[in-house]
Amino acid sequence: MDWGMKNRFHRIIRPEDGRTVMLAVDHGYFLGPTTGLERFAETVVPLLPYADTLMLTRGALRNYIPPESDVPIVLRVSGGTSILNKNLLHEGIITSIEEAIRLNVVGVAFSILVGAEFERDTILNFTKVVDEAERYGIPVVAVTAVGRDMVKDVKYLSLATRMAGELGARIVKTYFCEGFEKVVETSPVPVVIAGGKKIPEKEALTMTYSAIEAGAAGVDMGRNIFQSENPVAMIRAVRAVVHEGYTGEEAYQLFEELKAGGGEE
């Protein structure tokens, strides 16, 4: 890697431990004002001190995040369909690399849909983004999206993750599954897990711990943080697992303690 690529990469995945807590709040690009993000700034800004990076759209960045904030940004650059479309996640390029540079981002994120009838469209658009991003030393995070009828098992996720890495992703975001060790072991680049749909806090923390134990480089979690009954306590508990070696049970105890104190020490 050139210096610029290395510098940006290590602002996503921290060099001290090779791990990251990415906060995904890009959901509005296809879900609109989803639960927890109706008043975006009120929810997200208090979480910034505990996120290694923030993943969101350019509109959310410009309108909600204070420009004096030093949290590294991974910019969502794929989209084109809404939750109302039967071909959800049939995504194209929605933001140029020039725009990403203007916004001073450390990475860009693009969703591919392996196995869908339109997989070729998303994959070829993804490689266009990789070509442009590599030219300017910007790492691409591939998001291995899963369609409504697709099974999130080790066979599928290993396929999608390996393809993304071979096609130029510097980091891959995918779902946790049984046998996740194979997904990590067969990937040429670091893998972070998606939080997925909202589940109870204890389950989300246990999943995070299991993923780290299986070799994940961290999480890119959204709804299981910003839809939590106490988002600040939850992101701090997730951070304890990723960076401080807490087990899922220990992290849940921390969450309960922090929740009782309003998220503060």
Question: Describe it for me?
Answer:
The chain is of the alpha/beta class and 265 residues long. The chain has one domain (3-201): TIM Barrel (Alpha-Beta Barrel), CATH 3.20.20. It is built from twelve helices and ten strands. It has helices at 3-12, 28-31, 40-44, 58-64, 97-102, 119-135, 154-166, 180-185, 201-213, 223-226, 231-244, 248-260; strands at residues 20-24, 53-56, 73-76, 78-79, 92-93, 107-112, 140-144, 171-174, 191-194, 218-221. The strands form two sheets. An eight-stranded parallel beta barrel has the order 1-2-3-6-7-8-9-10, surrounded by six helices. The longest helix is centred in the middle third of the chain and has 17 residues, at 119-135. It is globular and about 50 Å long.
Q: Report the biggest beta sheet as strand number plus sense, adding barrel if it closes.
A: 8 strands, parallel, barrel
From the coordinates shown, what is the CATH architecture?
Answer: Alpha-Beta Barrel
CATH topology, by name, is TIM Barrel
CATH superfamily: Aldolase class I
* CATH uppermost class: Alpha Beta
The oligomeric state is single chain
What's the overall average pLDDT, rounded? 95
